[in-house]
Specification:
This protein has about 170 residues and is of the alpha+beta class. It folds into 2 domains: about 70 residues, no CATH class; about 50 residues. Helix content is about 40%, strand content about 15%. The chain is built from 3 helices and 5 strands. The two termini are about 25 Å apart. The mean pLDDT is about 80.
Length: about 170
């Protein structure tokens, strides 16, 4: 069972029963700021050409060599901006995701951090009950016991092998 079960209580209220993967809600994305305007008004065109001062144009000769050197610098800059930097960013992001997953797995398996089993009302998401259960198999059994208890008597206040952690309004 990978998703949440939908269980109907005797009073007709529907509940979503399942395992909560995060112990708290994920953070909201950072606010996007507008880029700052340049105070100096930007650079002029001559400053860009000064960067290519290593090219010796001579006395009007070898203009083609300068154009080729400028094209080579531009091609390397485009390659850096559009190929190498995005690949480095992707590699960093992938390493970050793997690190977060590994630390979560370490916490759940080695440190025996409990899973949160919860039932959330479909009509009023503020109504919820939850229980902390240590171990994957025990949490699977607790999900079944919670679904069965809701189907027979409504949301329970206690489960065997589980500690209550979440109590919503309206119980």
């Amino acid at each position: 069972m990978w998703g949440r079960q939908v269980v109907t209580a005797p009073d007709g209220e529907r509940w979503h029963v399942g395992r909560r993967w995060l112990s708290r809600p994920p953070p909201k994305p950072w606010s996007r700021r507008r880029p700052r305007e340049r105070v100096d008004g930007g650079g002029d065109a001559s400053s860009w050409f000064d960067a290519l001062s290593f090219v010796d144009f001579g006395d009007g000769g070898d203009f083609l060599g300068g154009v080729i050197a400028a094209a080579l610098v531009a091609a390397l800059l485009v390659l850096l901006v559009f190929a190498i930097l995005p690949l480095l960013g992707l590699a960093f992001e992938l390493a970050l995701v793997i690190g977060v997953f590994a630390s979560g797995l370490f916490g759940r398996v080695v440190l025996r951090r409990p899973w949160t089993i919860e039932a959330v009302s479909a009509e009023d998401p503020r109504r919820r009950v939850g229980f902390a259960v240590t171990g994957w198999r025990r949490s699977r059994r607790a999900i079944g016991a919670l679904a069965e208890a809701i189907a027979t008597t409504g949301p329970p206040s206690a489960l065997s092998e589980a500690t209550p952690v979440v109590a919503g309004s309206g119980e």
